[in-house]
C-alpha cells in the first residue's frame, strides 16, 4: 500500500510546520546584560543552525554570571500549532535535574539536625527492606551519590509505568528487589535511590514531598514557574514535546507523572533554573533569602573518593567534572519529550541552563551549554570568542559508499544507508553520520562524534584509534530456534522494549536508543552487559505453553508482550469501517483530484511483459488482503514503462544471488485508494494514501514486492508481513531476526540501484524516481490498452 499521509506521520509533519513558522523567532527574555551582546549573537546563530539541522522544536537557554541572569531567550514555538513563540519563561519537564532539588531538600534536613547523611536508610524508613545479601545497609548519602546498590528503576512507578502511583507505593515496591551491588562499592545510577531520598524528606518533614520542596526551595528561590506536579499556571506555559526513534516518525510525548517523582518529575523554566544557579553561586543565598547553609551546599559540591581511592563522579547529587581545566557541577535531564542540561563553574560563578522539547536531545543541550560556558569565559577574560564545529548533510552518494558491515578484533560495527542518510551502529548505540568539512562524524540529538574516516577505497573505516575492515555481504546464520519465542516487542507505545537477534546473539533495544547484547544465563534469563543503563541486571522471560514469551521482566520492571495486530494465515487484517462493497460503490462514483500542471502521457504496461520471470502474488485480486475482500478483477501488475524496465533490471541483478522478485501490487486505480482510505480506521491511516492527494500507485510508479528464493520458489521471511500496519513495516525497524533484516536490506539496495526509493513506513513499497511526472490515473485493469511486448 502507499501511505502518503496518516495519523502516525501527522505529528512529525506538524513539527516541521511549526518549526518553519517560527524558525526566526527568539525572545530576549529576562535580560541582556552589558558585554553579553556578542555572546548572545553567537549562541543564537548556533541554535538557529542546530534547529534547522536537527528539526528542533522549542529551545530555551539562560546564562548566569554570579548573582544575575545576563541573558535568557527562547527559540521556536511553545505549541505544536506554531502560535506561541518559545521564551525563557516557557515551561519544560526537566527530568533528572529534579534530583538536585531532592538532594538539596535532604541537605536542608541534615543542616537542621533531622537527618544524618551517613545513617542507614532504615533509620528514617523502617519498612524499607529490599533483599540485601550483603553485610552492610545503604546510607542516605549513598542514595544521592548513586552508590546504594539499588536497581535503576522501581518495579512500581518506574520511568516506564504510566499508572502514577504514590511515592510511598513506588518505594514500597523496592522490597521485591535485590540489591545489585554491595552498598558503597559501585557507582550505579539509580532513579529508585533518589526517590527513596525524596521519601525520606516526606517522612521526616511530615509533609507531602512536593509541598515541602515548594515551600522550602522553589518558593524561596522565586521559581514561580516550577513545581513537581503541573498546575494551571504551568500548563499554560508548558511546551509541546516530541518523542522519536531511529526507525519511527516523531509523535507527541506522554504526560503522565512518574512514580519516581523526586527523581525526575520537576517542571521548570530556564529563568527559574537560573535562580537556582544564582543560589549556588551565592553560597546558598538567594537575594538575602537563606535557602541552604553554605557548608551544606559546599558538601554537596565536594568531590569524594571511594574506599579504593578513586574520585567519584558525584558529590551529594551534583555530577562533578571539568571543562577545559575548570571544575564543573551540574546535572542532565531526560524525560519523555524533553532534554535539559544545567552546568556551572563554581570558582568562576558562571552557569547555563538549556532545555529542548524533544526526547533525548541531551547531546544538543550539552554542546550548547559547553559552548555557552566557553563563550562566557572568553568574554570575561577578554579573549576572542571561540567558534563551534557544525556539520552538513552528506554529499550525494557518500552514504551508499560507506554503508556496510565492518569488523575489528571481533568487534562489529554497521553503517546503514537510507535516503542518502547514514547511520552508525556502534558502542551499543545508533548515530546519524554527517559531513564535517571533508570528513565524516556522528552528529545528531545524542551528540557530536565519533569521527569516521574511510580508507581511500572504502574498504575500511577508522573510528578513534581502531580500524575496521569491510566484510563481504553474506547471508547471516539462521536465528537459534530456542530464541524465536522471545523475539518481539514488549511494553507500551510510549516506551517499547525490542528483543531481537543479531549475529547469533540475543539483543535488547531499550528506552529507544540503547542497544545491548545479552548474555544467556539460562533458558529464560539473560544478563545486561556491565556498561550502559542496567549493569548487573537481567531480563527474565515468562513463556506460555507453546514456548512464546508473554512477559519480560527487565531490570525488575514488567514489560507485557505486545502484538502486531490481527492476522489470519499470515495475512494482516483490519475490520473495515463500513461494508467494503458500499465503500467501493462510493469510490467508483467519486472523481480524483484535479491537477493543473503538465504531465507525461501514461504508458502503463504489464511488468511480466518486460520480464516474464517476475512472479506475481496480486493480493487485491483475491481475498488474501487486509480488507479480506477481492478488489481487482484480475491478478495483473502494471507500471509506467520506465519503471517496469527498471524493475526488470532489478530482477536480473538479483538472479545470480539466488533471488527474484514477487510483486504484490503495482498500478492502482484512484478509486481503490479512496476505498482503502475510507475502509481503514483512522488510527491506521499512516499506512494508506490520502485520496485527496492521490497515491504514487495511482501514477503507475509504485510497486509493492518482496524477495523470492529461486531455489525453493518461496518468498523469503521479512521482519513483518505485507500490508502489516505496525512498526515492523518501517524500513529501519530494528527488531526481528538478523536474516530477516538482511533480506529486507538486500531488496532495498537492489531497488535503489535502479532508481527506486523505499517508502518511509513500508519496507515493501518502492517509488520510481519519475513518479511526479505522471498524472493520477483511475482506469480499471480491464480498461487499459494491451501493451506490446518489447521483447518481441
Low-confidence stretches: 1-26, 787-792
Radius of gyration: 29 Å
Strand ordering within the main sheet: 14-15-16-17-18-19-20-21
What summary fits the major beta sheet? 8 strands, antiparallel, barrel
Proportion in β-strands: 25-35%
Derived from helix and strand composition plus strand pairing, the structural class reads: alpha+beta
Treating each run of at least 4 consecutive H or I residues as one helix, how many helices? 18
Helix content: 10-25%
* End-to-end Cα distance: 32 Å
Chain-averaged pLDDT: 93
Q: What's the total number of strands? A: 40
Describe the structure.
- With 792 residues, the protein is of the alpha+beta class.
- It is built from 18 helices and 40 strands.
- The strands form ten sheets. An eight-stranded antiparallel β-barrel has the order 14-15-16-17-18-19-20-21.
- β18 (439-444) and β19 (447-454) form a beta hairpin.
- α14 crosses α17 (670-679).
- The longest helix has 20 residues, at 362-381.
- It is globular.
- Residues 1-26 and 787-792 have low confidence and may be disordered.
What are its keywords?
792 residues, alpha+beta, eight-stranded antiparallel β-barrel, seven-stranded antiparallel sheet, globular, disordered N terminus
Give a quick rundown of the structure.
The chain is an alpha+beta fold and 792 residues long. It has 18 helices and 40 strands.
Write the layout of secondary structure elements.
Layout: H1 7-21, E1 26-27, H2 37-54, E2 59-65, E3 68-75, E4 92-93, H3 98-111, H4 140-144, H5 167-172, H6 191-205, H7 209-218, H8 232-237, E5 242-245, E6 248-252, H9 261-264, E7 267-268, H10 270-281, E8 285-286, E9 289-290, H11 294-300, E10 319-323, E11 326-335, E12 338-345, E13 350-356, H12 362-381, H13 398-402, E14 404-408, E15 411-418, E16 421-426, E17 429-436, E18 439-444, E19 447-454, E20 460-463, E21 466-470, E22 488-492, E23 495-502, E24 505-510, E25 514-517, E26 519-520, E27 525-527, E28 538-543, E29 549-554, E30 557-560, E31 566-568, E32 571-573, H14 580-589, E33 604-606, H15 607-610, E34 615-616, E35 638-640, H16 641-654, E36 659-665, H17 670-679, E37 702-709, E38 714-715, H18 738-752, E39 756-759, E40 762-768
Helix pairs in contact: 2-12, 3-6, 3-7, 14-17
